[in-house]
Design brief:
This protein is α+β, with helices and mostly antiparallel strands and 392 residues long. It has three domains: 121 residues, Bacterial polysaccharide co-polymerase-like (2-Layer Sandwich); 143 residues, no CATH class; 51 residues. The chain is built from 16 helices and four strands. The protein has a four-stranded antiparallel sheet with strand order 2-3-1-4. Helix 7 crosses helix 10, helix 11 packs antiparallel against helix 12 and helix 12 runs parallel beside helix 14. It is elongated and about 125 Å long.
């Protein structure tokens, strides 16, 4: 290296290389300015035309307040089976109701109510449900208030469907046993129906036995013993049913549950002390013994049914008190302005995207042109084109 070269390098400003690189970039942009501007303005024009042709979408919203925390907390552990897994992963009571809003039961009711299959030109109910899901958004805030929004081309229909979601949710909560009292009422109702069937069978057997044997003699003392025994057995059965019903909402350490367990143990000891209902055999005939057995069975089922009926009525009263009440805070009204499409945002995003893509394409073209001008690079470029070609 000569002294003159060293002096020239020393005299060159420190940032000259950077300025040359920046100047090269500007030269490339200026060289392909027509391509960049043509693509950018063309994309902007297309975005304006396409966005203006897109249908207007209106969003109607309603907000509801779900039942209190006490009622909703009881639902969380009981609705999973009823909804076939839709309630899994629930974190708070509001999520429970959002899951119910998105259930197939509600969606089928909405499809049928608004004839959405024809409106969306869907071939199947499943397609109509998917279209419905695409327009509905349900979300819950930190305060627990649920917001339901629906998008539609018709502002009135958007409001009607949003409000209909609330109505269908109310119907669903009314038909599902989602409170502790509802579960107990169903449990007692089922047990009561079984006992009613047993009582009818016991009475029928007693009547047929009397008709078959012609036995019309009464056994006052034996009947009194049998009735007392039947009442004890009925109390035991009723306590057992009551304990089973309490397991729906309380743990085995609950004071009331423990008290009923002690009462059940005492009743069983008392029944055991009275001979556990052994049949009297003071010279009674086989027909007499059979009569007492069937008489005792009738009295037992009658006593059980009376006790269960009282508990069933009490559960019905509790259910009426605990019925979930969904309160509407803001009813959906037809929106005055469209919510979609946002034409300005669409045009800006498309224009900027095409602008930056055009710049990248300009640099790519410049690099390709320089590669062709260089013999070594041109040979590599030709090999690349040949390798990418499908022709042999």
């Amino acid at each position: 290296m000569t002294m003159s070269d060293t002096e020239n390098m020393a005299a060159r400003p420190v940032g000259q290389d950077d300025e040359i690189h920046l100047l090269d970039l500007l030269i490339v942009l200026a060289k392909h300015k027509k391509l960049i501007l043509r693509n950018t303005f063309g994309a902007a024009l297309v975005a304006v035309v396409v966005s203006s042709m897109m249908p207007k979408i209106y969003t109607a919203s309603t907000s509801i307040m779900p039942p209190g925390q006490g009622q909703s907390s009881a639902m969380l552990g009981q609705l999973g089976g009823l909804m076939g897994g839709a309630a899994l992963g629930i974190k708070n009571p509001s999520d429970l109701y959002i899951g119910m809003l998105k259930s197939r039961s509600v969606e089928d009711a909405m499809v049928k109510r608004f004839n959405l299959k024809a409106l969306y030109e869907s071939k199947t109910d499943e397609d109509a449900r998917k279209s419905l899901e695409g327009g509905m958004i349900a979300s819950a805030g930190k305060d627990g208030i649920i917001s339901i929004s629906f998008d539609d081309k018709d502002p009135k229909r958007a409001a009607d469907i949003a409000n209909a979601y609330v109505e269908e949710l109310n119907r669903l909560t009314a038909t599902l046993a989602i409170t502790e009292a509802s579960q107990r009422r169903l449990f007692f109702e089922k047990q009561l129906n079984l006992v009613r069937e047993n009582l009818a069978k016991a009475e029928f057997d007693l009547q047929k036995m009397q008709e078959r044997t012609g036995l019309i003699r009464d056994y006052p003392q034996e009947q009194e013993i049998a009735a007392t025994n039947a009442r004890l057995r009925a109390e035991i059965a009723a306590k057992e049913v009551q304990l089973s019903a309490m397991q729906i909402g309380v743990t085995s350490r609950n004071p009331e549950y423990l008290r009923l367990q002690q009462e059940l143990i005492s009743l069983k000891e008392r029944l055991k002390g009275e001979g556990a209902g052994d049949d009297p055999n003071d010279g009674m005939s086989e027909k007499g013994l059979e009569y007492i057995r069937k008489f005792r069975e009738v009295k037992y089922n009658q006593a059980v049914m009376d006790m269960l009926y009282k508990q069933f009525e009490a559960a019905k009263v509790d259910e009426a008190k605990d019925t979930p009440v969904i309160q509407v805070l803001d009813k959906a009204v037809p929106p005055e302005r469209k919510s979609k499409p946002r034409r300005a945002i669409i045009v800006i995003l498309v224009t900027l995207s095409v602008f930056f893509f055009s710049i990248l394409w300009a640099f790519f073209r410049e690099a390709a042109e320089r590669a062709k001008a260089d013999p070594a690079q041109a040979e590599k470029y030709a090999m690349l084109r040949k390798s990418l070609s499908f022709r042999k």
